[in-house]
């Protein structure tokens, strides 16, 4: 990645839109009440990226990420977004799709394939795993 400065303007060059891929974290299966953090990363760095997290066809989180030209020279690039559930409930069980929009150098959008979050109910998993408590009744 190179950055070329013209006066106060800086252009990101060497960005390949053809190879822009959105990678989401793998599917997770958790228990109710756990803290869950799923991520979405993309393979190129852009000056500005809009990230939409979608659930059930509805955008539930919008984020705008900026990369300053000077930062493009460093390693720690800002090409991930995360969605955190501090206390997950069964209602959060769903596939979450990350949609990434880039404006510069060209308007492009990419969808991730999604992360499926499965939230297991504490009570029903007790019945499945604990035969002894059923016997003692
Ligand atoms: C979620 O995970 C990402 C990537 O591992 C990390 O950068 C972020 O800080 C995490 N967020 C929380 C709230 O734990
Ligand atoms: C983030 O962008 C940098 C710079 O283009 C790239 O080297 C890195 O692989 C990207 N990270 C991911 C997870 O794609
Ligand atoms: C998590 O959510 C459940 C159900 O809404 C609630 O009963 C519980 O107190 C919450 N726990 C925390 C640590 O917020
Ligand atoms: C889950 O959704 C149902 C139906 O929309 C609602 O009645 C219930 O209160 C929700 N439970 C939690 C823990 O958010
Ligand atoms: C991304 O997903 C949205 C919503 O489902 C859809 O409208 C859009 O066409 C998709 N974009 C691409 C590039 O597949």
UniProtKB/TrEMBL annotation:
Cellular component, GO, one term: B cell receptor complex
Pfam families given in the database record: Ig_3
Record's signal peptide: 1-17
Protein name per Swiss-Prot or TrEMBL: Ig-like domain-containing protein
Transmembrane segments: none
Keyword field: Immunoglobulin domain, Signal
Native organism: Acanthochromis polyacanthus (spiny chromis)
SMART domains: IG
Domain spans labelled Ig-like: 18-100
Manganese among keywords: no
Domain of life: Eukaryota
GO term, biological process aspect, one: B cell differentiation
């Amino acid at each position: 990645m190179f950055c070329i400065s013209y006066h106060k303007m800086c252009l990101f060059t060497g960005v390949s839109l053809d190879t822009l891929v959105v990678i989401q974290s793998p599917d997770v299966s958790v228990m109710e009440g756990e803290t869950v953090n799923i991520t979405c990363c993309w393979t190129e760095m852009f000056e500005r990226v809009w990230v939409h997290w979608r659930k059930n066809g509805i955008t539930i989180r919008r984020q705008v990420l900026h990369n300053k030209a000077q930062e493009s020279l460093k390693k720690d690039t800002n090409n991930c977004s995360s969605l955190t559930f501090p206390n997950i409930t069964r209602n959060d069980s769903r596939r979450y799709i990350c949609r990434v929009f880039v404006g510069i150098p060209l308007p492009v959008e990419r969808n991730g394939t999604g992360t499926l979050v499965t939230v297991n109910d504490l009570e029903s998993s007790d019945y499945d795993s604990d035969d002894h408590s059923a016997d003692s009744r």
